[in-house]
Amino acid sequence: MFENDKPIFRVEAFLNSAGLARRIVQIAPRQAFFSQGDPADSVFYLQRGRDEMARVMHEEHAFSDLFLKFLLERSIRIQADLVDQLFNSSEKRLARILLLMAEFSKEGEPAQFLPKISQETLAEMIGTTRSRVSFFMNRFRKMGFIQYNGRIQVHKSLLNVVLHDRMPGDEARSPDINDV
């Protein structure tokens, strides 16, 4: 029971037993045990039920391809969000999230309306204050990138904010190689 003078921790025995601050519950099929928005004050460990997912992944190749595609896209999106948070200004992050919500994916698409969303929620999403979001939204509106009157309408021209490091009218420029 000891390895290198330390007791061996048996994960399976620990998870299979109830104890202080641990309990085992039986959930009926299709009964939700956690929903988005619930307080995240627990760690869940599924003891049984996952074998059906493994079977479907092995036997239903179309499903496993779709599921793997979903996981990869989600992983790529999380990495892009992290890079966005670390290296981009809050103005650029706001432009990016508005474009993602508008789901611009095809050339020549008209401006897209976003689902109703508050400036407070946008501020939480990009890691800034509501007043900064309000400032940037007004700036975007004055430049013709968005319109809003109850619902936000995003114009594809907002891509210029994300693709270029400066806003129209900004006087900053990259040094020219001949300036050296």
Biggest sheet, in brief?
Answer: 3 strands, antiparallel
What is the strand arrangement across the widest sheet? 3-5-4
The value of Rg in angstroms is 24 Å
CATH topology of the largest domain: Arc Repressor Mutant, subunit A
Mean pLDDT across every amino acid position: 80
Number of strands: 5
The CATH class of the largest domain: Mainly Alpha
Count of DSSP helices?
7
Helical proportion, percent range: 40-55%
Describe this structure in words.
There is one protein chain. This protein has 180 residues and is mostly helical. The protein folds into 2 domains: 2-29 and 41-79, no CATH class; 90-163, Arc Repressor Mutant, subunit A (Orthogonal Bundle). Helices cover 45% and strands 7% of the residues. It contains 7 helices and 5 strands, in the order ββααααβααββα. The protein has helices at 11-15, 50-59, 61-87, 90-102, 119-126, 130-142, 159-163; strands at 2-3, 6-7, 112-113, 146-148, 152-154. The protein has a 3-stranded antiparallel β-sheet with strand order 3-5-4. β4 and β5 (152-154) form a beta hairpin. α5 (119-126) packs across α6 (130-142). The longest helix has 27 residues, at 61-87. The radius of gyration is 24 Å and the shape is elongated. The model is unreliable at 172-180 (pLDDT under 50).
